[in-house]
Give the backbone structure.
Amino acid sequence: MACTCAAGLILAFFTSLAFCQSTLEHGLNDAGITAIFPGNSAYKNASRPFNLRFDFSPAAVVYPSTVREVSTIVHLGYSEKLRVVARAGGHSYIANGLGGENGTLVIDLSNMTALKYDASSGIATIESGARLGDVALALNDVGRGLPHGSCPYVGIGGHAAGGGFGFPSRMWGLILDRIVSMTVVLADGTITSASNDANPDLFWALRGAASSFGIITSMEMATSPIPSYAVIFSYNWQMKYESAATSFIKFQAFAMTDIPAEFGAEVVLTSGGEAGNVTFAITGGFFGESETALNNTLVPFLAVMPSPTNVRYTGNGTWISALQDLGGGVLDTHTAGPDGTNTFYAKSLMTPQDDPITYEASEAFMKSLAYDGYASDTNWFVQAELYGGGNSAINAVPVDSTSFATRSALFTIQVYTATYNNAPPFPDDGFTFLDYLVSNITAAMHTGWDYGAYVNYPDDRLRDWQYLYYKSHYPRLKAMKAQYDPTGVFVFPIGIE
Ligand SMILES: Cc1cc2nc3c(=O)[nH]c(=O)nc-3n(C[C@H](O)[C@H](O)[C@H](O)COP(=O)(O)OP(=O)(O)OC[C@H]3O[C@@H](n4cnc5c(N)ncnc54)[C@H](O)[C@@H]3O)c2cc1C
Ligand SMILES: *[C@@H]1O[C@H](CO)[C@@H](O)[C@H](O)[C@H]1NC(C)=O
Ligand SMILES: *[C@@H]1O[C@H](CO)[C@@H](O)[C@H](O)[C@H]1NC(C)=O
Ligand SMILES: *[C@@H]1O[C@H](CO)[C@@H](O)[C@H](O)[C@H]1NC(C)=O
Ligand SMILES: *[C@@H]1O[C@H](CO)[C@@H](O)[C@H](O)[C@H]1NC(C)=O
Ligand SMILES: *[C@@H]1O[C@H](CO)[C@@H](O)[C@H](O)[C@H]1NC(C)=O
Ligand SMILES: *[C@@H]1O[C@H](CO)[C@@H](O)[C@H](O)[C@H]1NC(C)=O
Ligand SMILES: CC(=O)N[C@H]1CO[C@H](CO)[C@@H](O)[C@@H]1O
């Protein structure tokens, strides 16, 4: 336990824990900050993770409303030698918003969601507890937008901490690329700001590994005018695994041509209708001039493909209807009701653009899905998100300008599998299916293939995660961690050690 009060040395463990808790409770009480402790009837719900594969008991879940309150809480945690963690939208795949283990002091940011837009600079100041759907709506009202993922309930705090990809990202970059400055609370409770001018080193670390260095309370983000036209599209095929393997290679080759930045897409793979098949789809968003411009972009790819089984274009042509469609029909999280939960395991594989997937690896991948996937008793999908390719704004950012480690990926392949009823327990063969899926790809590539993994799709079972998530930036991040968080306040699975 991290809770080691001086008095605890001569007291039994149980007493020590109670003593710490009351110190914490008093401190929070004195500061007038809402807090939920074990034993409170709201505790179970307050400490519920999005992924029910996990079950953690935080020291307390605390609800600040101001930066100063966040500072007070962090300082209390620091003094009590507790691990402290921020929870924004609570959508971490491995419940890192609860600290990823028991006994963490959880700072829930759900009461810090303000958004203020300055028309003269185009900069929005957004508190980090805001959800993506609400941010999209508020910005749309002033004709502006940001690049981010599609789930309306994801918190901007956790999203921007480690990346933030959506279909507009090939045009506008990752959401962390839009941060101009941020207000952050450091391990001892100090409130500071980080930008290119103020604490540039910290600013570098926070854009890619924020959770290891502080609690971001708000961010100034450079917004863009919303595109005059937007559409979400989806082309679907039912295929034998060999055709799916060839189709993936065709899409990969197409992606590396001079495709417009306004074209965002992913390959979506789901279970086929019979063993040996997979369902292969290209889904994306187009933020260019018109539907004709999208169709013209797709011509060279569709020309080498069989006729699709299904084609779907959605939305009324506006940016917000495209985002709403991607978000499953709703963006306003206040009226949409509470978000659901799931019981799942996920892994990611970032493929290098200068060393793309070979036909052999694509075939091993599709064969795994067509047989092991078809037979699996879990509910899976694969999304190979297009990060790179022609004219990608993600990869135009120099790799060392932020701590986000991979600016040369062609695809971020996400493999995800859940229980059918969304409830625990998660079966062991769900793990092995995904482990093999990824290892079948890497084994078919040459030795030393320099792939990576995406820190916002964290995998609690990944080996060599320091390198796969943080790549060449790990040593610098580690040195900075010793400087900014010497006593280990912000410590959690896959965080900088
Ligand atoms: C349904 C779903 C859809 C998704 N879609 C996409 C997608 O399209 N694109 C994409 O890129 N990702 C996507 N993700 C992944 C998502 O980006 C991450 O799960 C993200 O970290 C979630 O942020 P959160 O604030 O909701 O989660 P939380 O669990 O609250 O936080 C996640 C991590 O960030 C830390 N953190 C949160 N707030 C702060 C803060 N203010 N300061 C410092 N650290 C903080 C937490 O401590 C934790 O370690 C999706 C996830 C889910 C569950
Ligand atoms: C449970 O927690 C969620 C946020 O995590 C909140 O929206 C909801 O109101 C809570 N439900 C109850 C019954 O307290
Ligand atoms: C953490 O807490 C949960 C819920 O109380 C409990 O089931 C689990 O065993 C605890 N884990 C550890 C490692 O103590
Ligand atoms: C949320 O913040 C507002 C002020 O910003 C405050 O009035 C309110 O009491 C806070 N709610 C909680 C639950 O702390
Ligand atoms: C499997 O794919 C082949 C090739 O597209 C198709 O002819 C067949 O109908 C598919 N099987 C099922 C059950 O969908
Ligand atoms: C674009 O392609 C889709 C799918 O083939 C088709 O339904 C649509 O009519 C085309 N739009 C234009 C403007 O040509
Ligand atoms: C398009 O859809 C959006 C989102 O549903 C809606 O707000 C808007 O009014 C619609 N615009 C038109 C012109 O239909
Ligand atoms: C289709 C395929 O090649 N599947 C293999 C994936 O890896 C596991 C473990 O090595 C093998 O058992 C599968 O045959």
Q: What stands out?
A: The chain has three domains: 2-108, 115-226+474-484, 231-465. The chain has a mean pLDDT of 95. Residues 364, 367-368, 436, 439-440 surround 2-acetamido-2-deoxy-beta-D-glucopyranose (ligand 8) (CB under 6 Å).
